[in-house]
Amino acid sequence: MKKIQISKNAIKEYTIITIGSAVMSLGIAMLVDVFIVPGGASGLSMAFYYIFDGALPIGLLKWIINIPLFIWGLIVLGNQFGWRTFYGFTTTSIFLDMFRGALPGLSFIRIQDTEFIKELATNDFIFLILVASMLMGVGLGLIFKFKGTTGGSDIPAAIFQKKYGIMPGKAIIYIDFFIIIMACFIFHFKGLQLPSSIITLILYALLSLFVTGYIIDTIIAGFDYARQALIITDKTNEVVDAICKELSRGATAIKARGIYRNIDKEIILTVVSIKEIPRLNDIVKKTDPDAFMITNNIHEVMGEGFKRRI
Fold first, then answer.
1. What are the beta bridge partners of residue 254?
2. What is the pLDDT of residue 307?
3. Collapsing DSSP states into helix, strand and coil, what is residue 279?
4. Nearest to 247, CA basis, from 268, 277, 269
5. What is the pTM of this model?
6. Please, what is the angle between helix 83-99 and helix 58-77, to 10°?
């Protein structure tokens, strides 16, 4: 029974990693022809795509760039960057070329030629960047949440952490920033007809990087959907009884000592849904008007009364 469960979990994880790869690749495909560099291996492949005048598909270039990084990661870090990394950057490369019509038999797709993208590129450039960045963030967030990775700057960042003690998040920011600057200057010196000045393109790319990172964090941590309440009251039993009866929620009493009066007391800890907060406020005020209550946002709750997120 245990082996079957593990197999089902693996299928679920790889399925969502695949969906995440598709969503992420769609976002990247929307930015290629407007010269907004997403950073990482995707941004580097975009630079080479224009250096070679589009002779090689951008997804294939992304895959080629990731292969030596993947081997480097295996040598230095062992299996930390294993099959999920290979699967992640391979599927994103395939989807990227599929959406741009570079795969044999699928040339009719070409997301960059749709009226929607053309209209946004002409009339609402910033909104196009925001939509694409959100798609990349959602895609990467799903991939990371289910233990996948797309290679790229993740691999050197992990190596720098091991060898030099540089935090991965900081290393990724440095690497992506360097790639964005480099790619934008390549576009400039190639004499390409850019939609904006090189400085503006760099700022747009950094905006995209920020939005993508924010969405990734939101997908991984989750949207706030519950509240933790800490209640300090002299009527602990009455408040707990009311919470259990009126909200059907459990509560935990934590032993503490009040510094001001130097007395031992208990703090009530309970977790409720967002919509139950007004009722909890009413319960506490009605039971003990002098009670002190603190509420905090909760991103993830596992246990009875709360549904686990995907």
1. 267
2. 59
3. helix
4. 277
5. 0.77
6. 170
11, β-bridge pairs:
none
CA distance 18 to 177: 27
Question: pLDDT tens-digit profile of 256-275?
Answer: 988 888 888 899 999 988 88
Please give the single-letter amino acid code of residue 213. G
Write down the pLDDT at residue 304.
Answer: 66
Q: Is 91 buried (19+), middle (13-18) or exposed (0-12) by CB count in 10 A?
A: buried
Q: What angle do CA 296, 208, 60 make, to 5 degrees?
A: 120
Q: Strand order of the sheet with strand 252-258?
A: 252-258, 263-273, 226-232, 292-298
Residue 3: Cβ-neighbour burial (10 angstroms; 0-12, 13-18, 19+): exposed
Cα–Cα distance measured from residue 91 to residue 21, given in angstroms and rounded to the nearest whole number: 6
Residue 309 has pLDDT above 70, yes or no: no
* Torsion of the alpha carbons at 41, 43, 47 and 50, rounded to the nearest 10: 110
Amino acid at site 168: P
Binning pLDDT at 50, 70 and 90, where does residue 219 land?
confident
Q: What is the pLDDT of residue 13?
A: 87
